[in-house]
Write a structure and sequence with these properties.
Blueprint lengths: L22 E10 L2 E10 L4 E7 L1 H11 L19 H20 L7 H7 L7 H13 L4 E7 L9 E7 L5 E8 L8 H14 L9 E4 L3 E7 L6 H6 L7 H4 L11 H21 L11 E4 L2 E4 L14 H6 L6 H18 L9 H6 L3 H11 L10 H5 L20 H38 L2 H22 L1
Antiparallel strand pairs: 1-2, 2-3, 4-5, 5-6, 6-8, 7-8, 9-10
Helix pairs in contact: 5-14, 8-10
């Protein structure tokens, strides 16, 4: 990486700033020691972080091999042994490599993949060895608990760590997850304990409560009883909890969808849980099939405590672009929409760029339901969670918890409100930065267009003619 391209404040970045989309432009190229070197300008546009890297074709090929388990064809141009230094060939290959890297970085999940981040030498990415030491220390504080295995790449987010843990006395198995804080630390770790204690005592049927919660200045860890059937996502793909995220949920793998009645029950349970969290002031926006567990007694939301890390969700970039998303309540609605779409199709991100086509492939009742979220009324905007819960889709679904009154202690409520405010302020700042970048790009595109150049040329010629007439 070219250090001169990095802004002065780069070193002060929190490592977890990886969940922002990347863009890369292959600029110049040169031939050095018989190899073509491509110069790539990289940028996180929302944060305005820029840096430059140099890569050979073989390094692109190595990245392609590492991404192969996800089952996508990124269109890497084939290797050529002879004539690969000719300028015409290099220019054509540069275009093909640009298309390859565009497909990788535009993907809503892959920009957080470890192989991609290492290839791009993305600044301030977490040091996994350091994160591992911090996470493991908390488990070692409990003599009865032993880490038996670390689950490599078990999640889409590079900086989140997963472990298999056993109790030596009971032989019970647990999953331990560790997630560092996002760009803005929500509050002091001591304050978090107040919130965790409050959530632990709730014992609300729609929540999957962890056995232990740990927090320090680095992040938040959760120890949860292992569910052999795994999450709802595991059930859809027929996988066990352990294993690589990219291999388990390979886009070529088929899913076993839920029966329609069960899908309605799961969606209604998740909605009831979200409404409860909304009333409590918990900014739970990480809503997807990997965080939902279906039990005999209904569906439950997990990892509620880790939503307080202020980490971006996988849908954060699309929310930045969405003019209807401005509050945490809006975020909960839009992420719930993505969850429902994943539950029905196995596809984790709703294709908002072609919403009508995507909706047309769903059962009719679900089409209308998701249309309210992804093609909202222009006058009224996004529906509320309560509005969605009262949709005719759920008229025959009876929630298994009735008239449950929830309230948070004043101290916990005040802390949660501060966390919500910080998250909302960051979101609005990122949205403003994105809109400003889009305005600048549009302006530059405009002034470089043929029509604009011709317009300026005519203005100059008119001014010259006017000056000529005045001198006569």
């Amino acid at each position: 990486m070219n250090p001169e391209a990095a802004p002065a404040g780069m070193a002060a970045l929190l490592p977890a700033d990886i969940a922002y989309p990347l863009s890369c432009d292959i600029g110049t190229w040169s031939i050095e020691d018989g190899h073509v070197i491509y110069v790539i300008d990289c940028q996180r546009s929302i944060l305005n972080h820029k840096w430059t890297i140099r890569r050979r074709y073989n390094e692109f090929a190595a990245l392609n091999r590492e991404l192969a388990p996800y089952g996508m064809d990124f269109g890497l141009p084939p290797k050529k042994t002879f004539g690969n230094l000719k300028p015409d060939f290099v220019r054509a290959r540069k275009v093909a490599l640009q298309e390859f890297i565009d497909k990788v970085t535009v993907h809503p999940l892959l920009f957080c993949n470890e192989a991609v981040l290492n290839f791009l030498e993305a600044p301030a990415i977490p040091d996994k060895n350091e994160e591992n030491q911090v996470a493991a220390t908390h488990i070692r504080n409990f003599r009865d608990l032993v880490i038996t295995k670390r689950w490599e790449e078990n999640g889409w987010r590079y900086c989140k760590l997963f472990y298999q843990v056993i109790s030596q006395s009971t032989k019970n198995m647990y999953v331990y997850t560790w997630l560092p804080y996002g760009r803005i630390r929500p509050t002091q770790p001591g304050n978090l304990i107040v919130i965790f204690e409050f959530l632990r005592k709730l014992k609300f049927p729609y929540f999957l409560s962890p056995e232990k919660v740990m927090a320090d200045r680095h992040g938040i860890g959760l120890l949860t009883e292992m569910k052999p059937r795994g999450s709802l996502r595991d059930r859809l793909f027929g996988k066990r909890p352990e294993g690589s995220f990219w291999e388990k949920y390979n886009v070529q793998n088929e899913i076993v969808p839920l029966a329609d009645d069960e899908a309605r029950e799961v969606a209604k349970d998740v909605l009831e849980g979200l409404i409860a969290l909304q009333k409590l002031g918990v900014p739970y926006t990480s809503i997807h099939c990997g965080n939902v567990y279906v039990t005999e007694n209904g569906s439950r939301l997990s990892e509620i405590e880790q939503c307080i890390t202020n980490q971006n969700t996988m849908h954060y970039p699309s929310m930045i672009k969405n003019k209807y998303v401005n509050t945490i309540d809006n975020m909960m609605v839009i992420n719930f929409g993505h969850f429902v779409y994943e539950m029905l199709t196995g596809i984790m991100v709703f294709p908002e760029h072609d919403a009508i086509t995507a909706l047309s492939r769903l059962p009719r009742d679900w089409q209308y339901f998701l249309q309210r979220i992804f093609v909202p009324d222009k006058k009224y905007g996004l529906p509320s969670l309560c509005g969605l819960a009262n949709d005719p889709l759920f008229e025959n679904i009876t929630p298994f918890v009735r008239d449950c009154y929830l309230s948070a202690p004043l101290v916990a409520k005040a802390l949660l409100e501060t966390i919500r405010q910080k998250y909302t302020q960051r979101f609005h700042a990122d949205k403003a930065a994105f809109n400003e970048r889009r305005r600048i790009d549009h302006f530059q595109e405009l002034i470089q267009s043929d029509a604009e150049r011709n317009r300026r040329r005519e203005l100059v010629l008119a001014q010259l003619r006017n000056n000529s007439d005045n001198t006569k």
